[in-house]
Amino acid sequence: MQVEQEYALLPGITVSNVLKGFELEPHWVEWLGTLQAESFKKSTLFITAVRTQPNVVWSGPAHEFLDRRVRLLHHALVLLGCGYNNGVLMVGGNTAGGGLHIGPVRSGLTPCFRSYYRKYRKIELQDLDRSATILTNLEHIFGHAPNPVFKRLRKGFKVWIRGAEEPEEYSERVHSYVRATEAILKPTLARKRTKAEMKRAKRDRREYRPITTTFISRGQTLIGHSKASGDLLRQLYEIRSSVEHTKDILPQVKAVEGILKKEAFEFRALQCEILAGEVFARILSTPHLLEAFSTERKVEGFWSRTIKKRSELWGEAIDLDADARKHFFSHFLPESY
Questions:
Q1: Mind listing the pLDDT tens digit for each residue in 39-57?
Q2: Hey, which of 90, 244, 255, 297 has its CA 20 to 30 A from 187?
Q3: Count of CB atoms within 10 A of residue 13's CB?
Q4: Could you tell me the residue ranges of all domains in the chain?
């Protein structure tokens, strides 16, 4: 198999946008169908993963290990806002006996669809470099399953995946992206409180952690502290709650003169997608943040810091308005929105 312009991400895994010198055998073309076989030939992203010796972390079959690596790399690229796809073809093979044996050939990963209101963006070299770091850390956190370490990150990331793989119900995408962000903000308590804690909370008139208020206050660490940021976070959470309780979403979307409610919702939906993607991408590519969100105790510790200290740890705030305007398919959104 000849792959041109191949870029080595990590030992055993490379990517390219050009594949030449490889032809599916006639029986595979017949099994797949002409259209799918032709689609494979015209693909613009090829991921090659090989395993030359057993992995010390993964003791299962080689094809399962390789499938998971490719899947996680694909998700890493989508986190960064590129690498979306409408279909995937998995071509397996081995070199048993000294020759290359192709097969099986099958439909592979569940596609991650680009929202129709999000502009197309090519995969850049910096995306590949960052995705390699994210892949390494994803393999690390999933290597701890089912242990409690990194459990919150694993659960939140799986919720994000459901949003990225949803092809039609864009309200469900919004719901998943906000819930994935919510996993990091941790607006709810992690465990049932003891009787002593309940008495103390009652005495202090704090019988529960107000979810919406906590989501808004903690969320501003991620996107900046301002009234506009607070109002935006409140609106995103209200949209999420409307989906959660099967209510009409549009009443929760801020109206703008001259703009259809539908387009206003699409802009908010894109903001949810960008927020969740950047939150997980940053944590999964920053060692001190990965450590800070590794256990429930450390997550609580992060959010119990002063606003200044946790903002310093988080880094530069995500400019959600500018990022969304840059990638949104619209020429009608006013500057004041």
A1: 666 677 888 888 877 655 5
A2: 255
A3: 18
A4: 2-94+101-107, 144-189+210-327
